[in-house]
Design a protein that fits this description.
This protein is an alpha/beta fold and 587 residues long. The chain is 34% helix and 14% strand. β14 (360-366), α11 (370-375) and β15 (386-389) form a beta-alpha-beta unit.
């Protein structure tokens, strides 16, 4: 069915049942942008920032009703004004109130090109506010207004406008409630309960709060300065590695559409900046598949703990260690692809090149803030020195004056530069599992799959399941993305697992929407439409790769023949696997 609505004096027809979409969604549908700080397409509308106010005209000519468009249903026959004088005055006043909370001169911050205050300020002719900022009471953890307690995320209380979007992201999308509301009246603020700092909470350091914070109240902890110092130190050998999803997203920070593939240009930029070697994390992904597929089949045939969880996502691993320590035996012992490649760089590449591993600094170029946490895990022995998010990498490229889009493509350094299509799809939810199943099936049965694409794993849902028969054994698998969906899933599965029963044998979990392409370190904005374009680009790379199976990668074959021997060997266990343990919170 369809119904008619008047917007700014023009009549529009909308499909569906009246009241099922909001005024904000309807305006977006017809190409009309309404400002908002607290709205997110995946979350319940709250109308907290009050910036999306519109006016519903009265029928008797009296002043209309001002409502928040994000939370008001669209009804048949109503007449809406999106920029009447009353609406503009209300928005301007609300924006001044928000500016009063934002204790900053706005000269520079890491988000100033993505800051909505800087975007909306000029639109409403605002450069200052008459409202005085009330300083927060000093506390044990952030007397300076800064929570710098984690290796991944910085929380600046003086720049928080209290829109509550991070609270909803953490609660509804990620199911963690690490950030909430505390205090009352003038001292009301957004942060962990009991005046805890972020490091004392269940925070997985996924960075989704950073990705969606409309100001610089939440930012990734920057490694740019440390990387620049390493690049300018002639005694240091700098090695960069690039994650799969970065190559299809970094172009957005250079005004290109989502999904532009800039692999070669990014390698060129890193070389121009002074990196001695640039490798592909996708080779680490191929290595992960070799070890993970072997571990999975060993668990299946030797009656070891099933189901097996993937261990590629550090935010998911941290959540498991924090909240589900009883399930640690089900977690794959494989290191993440980036940590595997870092280990190979320090222990294999350095030896073959005659380099001193102590002089090598490995820099990960990642879509993820939780990778900064992972790099500091003591069991990895400082294999990784720095982690740069996609956003940080773009800022560095701009800082040194390079125009990424104008650079001629350069190949990755060899060896360790070759990767398969299976390694590429690690960047998308379902990709780790699809890549592992390609290798597990074909190396176990010595038969080729009729079709390499697992269509059920390429859906955009939060849960994607299927089954495959390998040598008469039916293997049941499921891929899950977002930690909120993971917690719902584990609530129904945990007791069965502990009893030795489960509906699945193999479970892939990614902390962020659609997987790494939606990581907390990716360009802003990141929404579902953008994610689909990035995913399409990832699948396109896989489709056009000469080698699409991890075990057929020539560099992988060479690594095993010359160094590791075979998957699961003693040397592989030492350098490519790790242990996970229960973390105590609230210290």
């Amino acid at each position: 069915m369809s119904y008619k609505v008047r917007i700014n004096g023009n009549e529009f027809s909308f499909e569906g049942e009246p009241g099922k979409k909001t005024i904000l969604e309807a305006c977006k549908e017809i190409g009309l942008d309404i400002p908002t700080f607290c709205y997110h397409e995946r979350l319940r509308p709250r109308g907290a920032c009050r910036l999306c106010i519109v006016e519903i005209e009265s029928k008797d000519g009296s002043p209309g009703k001002l409502v928040t468009s994000c939370s008001t249903p669209l009804k048949e026959g109503i007449s809406i004004l999106t920029h009447s004088q009353r609406v503009l005055n209300a928005r301007r006043f609300n924006l001044m109130l928000l500016l009063g909370d934002h204790q900053s001169e706005c000269i520079y911050c890491d988000k100033n090109t993505d800051c909505k205050l800087l975007e909306y300020g000029p639109e409403f002719q605002l450069s200052s506010t008459p409202f005085e900022h009330i300083p927060l009471p000093k506390s044990k953890f952030h007397s300076s207004g800064l929570d710098n307690s984690t290796p991944s995320i910085v929380k600046n209380y003086d720049k928080c406008i209290k829109c509550g979007l991070c609270v909803q992201i953490c609660s509804e999308m990620q199911g963690l409630d690490a950030i909430g509301y505390r205090n009352r009246g003038a001292y009301f603020e957004v942060g962990p309960a009991f005046n805890f700092n972020l490091a004392q909470t269940e925070c997985s350091q996924c960075g989704q709060c950073v990705l969606h914070c409309p100001t610089c109240a939440l930012e990734e902890k920057s490694d740019i300065e440390g990387v620049m110092k390493a690049l300018n130190d002639k005694k240091t050998i700098t090695v960069a590695q690039i994650a799969p999803s970065v190559r299809v997203s970094i172009g957005e920070d250079f005004m290109l559409p989502p999904g532009e593939i800039l692999t070669g240009q990014l390698v060129s930029a890193l070389k121009r900046m002074g990196f001695d070697y640039v490798f592909d994390t996708q080779l680490g992904a191929d290595l992960t598949i070799m070890e993970e597929a072997k571990e999975l089949m060993d668990r299946v045939t030797m009656e070891k703990p099933l189901p097996m969880f993937t261990s590629c996502c550090p935010a998911w691993v941290k959540m498991l260690e924090d909240l589900y320590p009883e399930l640690i035996p089900h977690l794959s012992t494989c290191r993440s692809p980036a940590q595997m490649l870092a280990s190979v760089i320090k222990n294999v590449f350095a030896k073959n090149k005659g380099l001193n591993p102590k002089r090598i600094k490995v820099v990960e170029i990642m879509p993820c803030t939780a990778k900064k946490f992972e790099a500091q895990r003591p069991e990895y022995k400082d294999d990784v020195s720095f982690v740069l998010t996609t956003r940080e990498t773009a800022r560095m490229i701009k800082e040194v004056g390079l125009e990424l889009t104008r650079l001629e493509p350069t190949e990755f350094d060899n060896p360790l530069g070759e990767s398969s299509g299976a390694g590429t799809i690690f960047g998308v939810s379902g990709g780790v599992m699809e890549a592992a199943l390609r290798t597990a099936y074909e190396t176990t049965t010595n038969k080729k799959l009729e079709k390499l694409e697992f269509d059920e794993l390429r859906d955009y849902a939060n849960r994607k399941a299927g089954r495959i028969t390998i040598k008469g054994r039916e293997l049941r698998y499921i891929s899950i993305n977002t930690l909120g969906e993971t917690r719902k899933f584990l609530a129904s599965l945990k007791d069965k697992m502990l009893e030795g029963k489960s509906d699945y044998d193999f479970i892939e979990i990614m902390a962020c929407p659609f997987g790494c392409i939606g990581g907390g370190g990716q360009p802003i904005p990141t929404n579902d439409e953008i994610l689909k374009k990035r995913a399409s680009a990832i699948y396109n790379i896989d489709a056009h790769k000469k080698v699409r199976r991890s075990y057929e990668n020539p560099d992988i074959k060479k690594l095993y023949s010359e160094f590791f021997g075979e998957p699961g060997s003693k040397k592989a266990e030492e350098l490519l696997h790790t242990k996970y343990y229960h973390r105590e919170l609230y210290k």
